[in-house]
Amino acid sequence: MTDLQDQRATRREYTAPSLRRVDLADDPLEQFAGWFGDAVERGIIDATAMTLATATRDAVPSVRVVLMKHYDEEGFCWYSDARSQKSSEILGNPVGSLLFYWRELSRQVRVTGQVERLPDAQAQEYFDTRPRDSQFAAAASIQSAQIDSRDELVRRMAAVEASVGEGAVPRPGSWAGWLLKPQRWEFWQGREGRLHDRFRYVRRAKDWSIARLQP
Ligand SMILES: Cc1cc2nc3c(=O)[nH]c(=O)nc-3n(C[C@H](O)[C@H](O)[C@H](O)COP(=O)(O)O)c2cc1C
Asked: In angstroms, what is the span from residue 65 Cα to ligand 1's centroid?
């Protein structure tokens, strides 16, 4: 094992103010809004980045980062190609888990629930606001499909640009919005000596049960 491979001595203290049961909002969305606001106010780069876990029907998991584009009482939304690996997995097994990690605040939030595709009109509305380059890239790429070279990708992008000219870039029918509807949340606040504070919210008929978890 080289020094770089051996990371057993790499550690740091997670020092942060305590997270107490009395500090928590009854509604996890409100709790999230407060923490997300803190992350934005702190100027954390990619505060909207969330690690999205999906799994095949036979439970083989995979994760990747996507950007949260909005959240509200319905859930968390991101945009992606419906032909991608993640989307295929969601279509076969419509559940997922999201993780926000805000390192500078020693906080993570985990959210788990059912995932569904948003109406195309909503995807269209957001697609229309994207920079033109991103629109062309979306139109030229079949996300997660194999390709022989980058040159081929560049050629495809140029062909789309040529065919569109000065006009609006058509949204590929597969470019879609996705919504994860929270059933379970966990708020994690890193604390000194690894005695972290963790609280889990689980959806009940009318409200949420809240429990402290061991670190
Ligand atoms: C910071 C960051 C943001 C990303 N945002 C998105 C996104 O919003 N939508 C998306 O489809 N891919 C996004 N990606 C790329 C994905 O991580 C991933 O490579 C891609 O979606 C293909 O994943 P899949 O093959 O598992 O479907 C992002 C990657 C990073 C590092």
From this structure: 5
Amino acid of residue 109: V
- Report the greatest alpha carbon distance in the chain: 60
DSSP single-letter state for residue 68? -
Distances (CA, A) of 114 to 96, 98, 189, 191, 199: 6, 11, 25, 31, 21
Q: 152-164: per-residue pLDDT in tens?
A: 999 999 999 999 9
Q: Is the residue at 2 inside a domain?
A: no
- What is the reported pTM? 0.95
In ligand 1, which atom is closest to the CA atom of 46?
A: 1
**Sign, CA torsion 137/141/143/146:** negative
Does residue 12 lie in a domain region?
no
Q: If you take atom 13 of ligand 1, which residue's CA is the nearest one? A: 66
194 is catalytic: yes
